[in-house]
Amino acid sequence: DLQLNYYAQSCPNAEQIVKQQVIKLYNKHGNTAISWLRNLFHDCMVKSCDASLLLRTINGIESEQESDRSFGMRNFKYVNTIKEALEKECPMTVSCADIVALSARDGVVMLGGPRIEMRTGRKDSKQSYLPEVEKTIPNHNDSTQSVLSRFRSIGIDTEGTVALLGAHSVGRVHCVNLVHRLYPTVDPTLDPDHAEYLKRRCPTPDPDPKAVLYSRNDLQTPMILDNNYYNNLLKHKGLLLVDQQLTSDPSTSPFVEKMAADNGYFHDQFARAILLLSENNPLTEDQGEIRKDCRYVNGD
Ligand code: HEM
Ligand SMILES: [Ca+2]
Ligand SMILES: [Ca+2]
């Protein structure tokens, strides 16, 4: 079972080492902290927080990273940096799944978000579940009700789901995920001035998917996990349809308004929901393994 400080005996410095690495990486590449947060969502939502996301395509394994839903994910190579630091101190002891969880927790702190007390003891999967990704991770233009039902299926309520989408207070969106709101006509739920700005960022209706054209989610505080996301939604400056629609669905709009007015309330709800997400269906003792390299299952 998951417990606080699971590695107290087996690797007493484990959590400290993850934190040190997250800080070091943040100081070199600030956006690694953003990646750790998105990794938690994409790993924990698919089956379990089991590092299934981190496996590469090889030997019959089809990586979840190859799904369209994983578009834009970055910095996977720096997970290995964290793992290597742990292997040096305690070989084969700390799971990649716990690295996903703890790095997200520490990344959130670097981004000015809440401190979250997380339990550990997750095991790593022996599979990556590529076909499951589209069944569990919503698409950027799904309806609010379909998004809510996916989160509800892993025990996260409406308030928690609205808070989790506040992760889009940091990071970026590539033009391929935006242009349908700009061309041929501008989505009427998008602020016209913001639409002009986005058209300058994304000048053509069919961007090359390999091109790096993108816009930042939150122009005011792009690197801070704050409630400015909700203020942007109220100003019709949400980038994805799933973002903007939170203001028009009567089941979510009251929470958007409350979170826009109160950053402390947003942080409390965000912390609560991240905890639920991070404890979705963990693998226990005999169901998984501790990978030596987060990219590959252990060889025999
Ligand atoms: C309805 C649910 C969600 C959908 C459809 C969704 C979709 C997306 C899309 C399309 C992008 C932009 C990818 C790109 O173009 O590069 C993105 C970025 C991001 N998402 Fe979500 N997301 C959802 C929920 C979440 C949740 C729950 C979290 C974390 C708790 C999260 C964290 C992030 C982060 C941090 C980024 C920025 C990544 C970066 O800049 O590298 N998202 N999301
Ligand atoms: Ca997983
Ligand atoms: Ca922000």
The number of helical segments is: 12
The biggest sheet, with number of strands, parallel, antiparallel or mixed sense and barrel status, is: 2 strands, antiparallel
The geometry reads as globular
How far is it from the N-terminal to the C-terminal residue, by CA?
Answer: 26 Å
- What are the secondary-structure elements, in order, as H or E? EHHHHEHHHEHEHHHH
Task: For the largest sheet, list the strands in their spatial order.
Answer: 1-2
Q: From the alpha-carbon coordinates, what is the Rg to the nearest angstrom?
A: 19 Å
Residue-averaged pLDDT = 97
Give the low-pLDDT segments: none
Percent range for β-strand residues: under 5%
Describe the 3D structure:
With 300 residues, the protein is mainly alpha-helical. The chain is 43% helix and 3% strand. The protein has 12 helices and 4 strands, in the order βααααβαααβαβαααα. The protein has helices spanning 14-28, 31-45, 77-89, 96-110, 130-136, 144-152, 158-165, 192-201, 228-234, 241-244, 253-261, 263-278, and strands at 3-4, 119-120, 172-174, 214-216. Strands 1-2 form a two-stranded antiparallel sheet. A two-stranded antiparallel ribbon has the order 3-4. α2 crosses α4. It starts with a strand and ends in a 22-residue tail after the last helix. One calcium ion (CA) binds next to loops. One calcium ion binds at residues 169-170, 218, 221, 224, 226, 228.
